[in-house]
Design a protein that fits this description.
The chain has nine helices and no strands. By secondary structure, it is mainly alpha-helical. Helix 1 (11-30) packs across helix 2, helix 4 runs parallel beside helix 7 and helix 5 packs across helix 9 (189-207). The relative contact order is 0.11.
């Protein structure tokens, strides 16, 4: 009979789960997913191995929770940034500056190692469960970004233009962060960030109705 996983409700149990997930994140960054065992995670979290299995079926389930925590970590800063900085549609310089500041914010929140990043990309391709969670998180990210667009009342020319801006802006931001932090492809990261903000502005310009 399959072991029943405990659904935590009390603060003590929730705190223990936080310790387990934090410990797993630390070890996955330092040693990698494949070189980390549930025993390692329990020892790092200073909990009994049995406690780990009380809340998680296996190491992969812990990893999926780590993925979700990483995704959540970007939500509040992103929303807070745009709530504080409504885009002045008629000021190209101000828009580019905001895009540049936002890119630096996203760079600062990518606090996982190259080992973690590379394995995350690999696991996404080879593990069906992890790929499914990635797709769910991507859909959630698109939905939350659209909510920000609605709040900002961005004047997109059409729904299709909004979808184009959403898709390619996310692609550009992710690619910039990963290329700078995990591939070391650019010597002048400030110039790279500036050029990316200009590309985002160009995309914004062609997909929105410009106000004179």
């Amino acid at each position: 009979m399959e072991k029943k996983i405990r659904i935590p409700t009390q603060k003590r149990a929730l705190d223990k789960i936080d310790k387990i997930v934090d410990a797993a994140f630390k070890l996955f960054n330092e040693k990698g997913y494949y070189n980390t065992t549930t025993v390692d995670i329990a020892n790092e979290a200073k909990v009994a191995t049995g406690s780990v299995y009380s809340y998680f079926k296996d190491k992969k389930e812990i990893y999926i929770q780590v993925m979700k925590r990483i995704d959540e970590k970007f939500d509040d800063p992103t929303r807070e940034f745009w709530l504080k900085n409504k885009i002045p549609f008629d000021n190209a310089g101000a828009i580019k500056e905001l895009f540049g500041l936002f890119l630096k914010l996203m760079l600062s929140h990518h606090n996982f190692s190259k080992t973690f990043h590379d394995e995350m990309e690999a696991l996404r391709l080879i593990d069906e469960d992890i790929r499914k969670v990635h797709l769910e998180l991507d859909e959630q990210r698109f939905r939350k970004t659209k909510e920000i667009f609605d709040f900002l009342n961005l004047p997109f020319k059409s729904q299709n233009d909004e979808d184009i801006f959403l898709h390619y802006s996310i692609f550009l931001i992710d690619d910039l962060c990963h290329t700078i932090l995990y591939e070391n492809a650019f010597k002048n990261t400030d110039l790279c960030t500036e050029r990316c903000s200009h590309m985002l502005y160009s995309l914004f310009e062609v997909t929105t109705i410009r106000q004179s």
